[in-house]
Specification:
Chains A, B: Keywords: DNA-binding, Transcription, Transcription regulation. The structure is a homodimer. The first copy, chain A, is an all-alpha fold. Chain A has 2 domains: about 50 residues, Homeodomain-like (Arc Repressor Mutant, subunit A), CATH 1.10.10; about 130 residues, Tetracycline Repressor, domain 2 (Orthogonal Bundle), CATH 1.10.357. The first copy, chain A, is built from 9 helices and no strands. The longest helix of chain A has 28 residues. The first copy, chain A, is elongated and about 65 Å long. At the A-B interface, helix 6, helix 7, helix 8 and helix 9 of A face helix 6, helix 7, helix 8 and helix 9 of B.
Chain lengths: ~210, ~210
């Protein structure tokens, strides 16, 4: 019965990943070990090592598989609304207790571990970048994005300010912060020509007063 | 002779910081210890601990004091040229062998060590943000920056894409990357009204073709 066997294997994998996140949230990344995950999940240590070479790799997979749906990209036809919805979802994850602290630790670890850094990019950043670029390309075709905007920079420009807040200032990641960043990125830093009232600005949340 | 005594103290401090960077570059952050710095610098371990509570704090100070001049902000009157010069200096540091790997490790450590994260912000990020905002405020007064641009976001928007490349994709940080990011941030993502030829775009490097 290969189907039942496959299902059992999938269930075992999911149980290990769930245990990784639960235990990681309880005791923190530093104290998390593959041995402790194995013990709590009732799995063999070697079963885990066969699939994941390090606790970083196990944690990365667990974070991605169990939170994938939160990073979906809507396409309602309104690029600002869609970017906003997607980025709200991303910052809710980053700011939440089950994802944020472990993901922060994982990125910390990726500064020492090139294999983990490569996995983070291959498994997480690149797929998200592909979705972002596809959504923005459609927006450009519909005239909602500047035809000059370099799509290869989209991830760096859109998510850079979020990672800066998450990793460097470690300040709060709120929807209001996302709104302000999107407003600023869409409007650009350089002065616009006159006749501001007539420019075709999409209906975003209001521009904040400048300090 | 308080002057001579002060000078000796300053020289000792500088010798310890230089040794920290030299040794850190040789053996890497993970293997760096305060004991090893003390031994090589010919200083007492307690002398170092009296001043720096952890190797992270010692390394942060060493990186900042010995590279401060590389982060100066010019003011030639042309805001794009000045930002470009300052950010070129910053990415040269980040991409260089004496600063980059140790600074990367320090940010990694700051993901686990809230005291180090606070020191990084207080000693490095906030002073740089203040200089950036002051330079941009002058530019805004001269009409070189959109009057709507929210200056409190300046660091996140300008340096976010650099940290994204440095910490997440870990791709090369080149002057060409800086040029493309500045072009995109100044122009903005939203479509401009017609009559593009007449808009008062500062003379920056050419806009790259969109992929």
């Amino acid at each position: 019965m290969p189907d039942a066997s496959n299902r059992r294997s999938t269930e075992r994998t999911e149980a290990i990943m769930r245990t990784t996140l639960d235990l990681g949230q309880e005791i923190g990344y530093a104290k998390l070990t593959i041995e402790a995950v194995a013990a709590r999940a009732g799995a063999g240590k070697h079963t885990i090592y066969r699939r994941w070479p390090s606790k970083g790799a196990l944690l990365l997979d667990s974070l991605l598989c169990l939170h994938e749906s939160a990073l979906a990209y809507p396409d309602t036809g309104d690029v600002i609304a869609d970017l906003r919805a997607q980025i709200y979802g991303a910052v809710d994850l980053l700011a939440g207790p089950s994802f944020g602290p472990l993901f922060r630790a994982l990125i910390g670890e990726a500064q020492y571990d090139p294999q983990l850094a490569a996995a983070l990019n291959e498994r997480f950043i690149t797929p998200l970048a592909d979705k972002t670029v596809a959504r923005l390309k459609a927006a450009r075709d519909q005239g909602q994005l500047s035809p000059d905007f370099d799509l290869t920079l989209a991830m760096a420009i859109l998510s850079g300010p979020l990672y800066f807040q998450f990793l460097i200032t470690q300040g709060p990641l709120t929807h209001e912060y996302v709104d302000r960043i999107l407003d600023a990125l869409f409007a650009g830093m350089e002065p616009r020509p006159r006749a501001r009232a007539s420019r075709a600005r999409p209906a975003t949340s209001s521009v904040r007063p400048v300090s």
